[in-house]
Amino acid sequence: DGFFFVDTNPKTLVGLRMSTASKHRTTTSTVRRFTECLAAYFEGWEELSRDMSWDIIYVQHEIYRPMEGRQKFEVVNSDNLGDDENREIAAFCREKVRQYLAALSSADARRGEALRR
Fold first, then answer.
1. Among 15, 2, 9, which Cα is nearest to 97's?
2. What pTM was computed for the model?
3. Segments making up each domain of the chain, as ranges
């Protein structure tokens, strides 16, 4: 898994999630931990992320059963998140995060190897 930024207006954060499953479970507390790490690493994160677009690309090998529809961001009651914060994060994920699926074949991987030579 990883992420990168696209310098567009507004700036876009693109997350890459590798998966073999037909569903990918992401909890609100995981989203919060991720954004806390970003805030700790990038100076001025509050301002930088204010109008940012968010995309997630789920990458799967073609042999696995593909994901169907939007992946859900589950609200999991935890000691460190209150109900309001859980709902706020879930709404953000539902309304602001765009999701895409990319299926790769073995031929795609070999093509990438050939390009590096």
1. 15
2. 0.76
3. 2-116
- Give the span between the Cα atoms of 107 and 101, in whole angstroms: 18
pLDDT tens for each residue of 33-91:
899 999 999 999 999 998 999 999 888 877 777 777 777 777 776 656 677 888 888 88
Place of tokens 């204010």: 50
- Helices marked H in 10-102 — which ranges? 28-41, 45-49, 83-96
d(CA 86, CA 78): 9
Residue with tokens 């507004």: 10
* Angle in degrees, 0-180, between the axes of helices 28-41 and 83-96, rounded to the nearest 10: 80
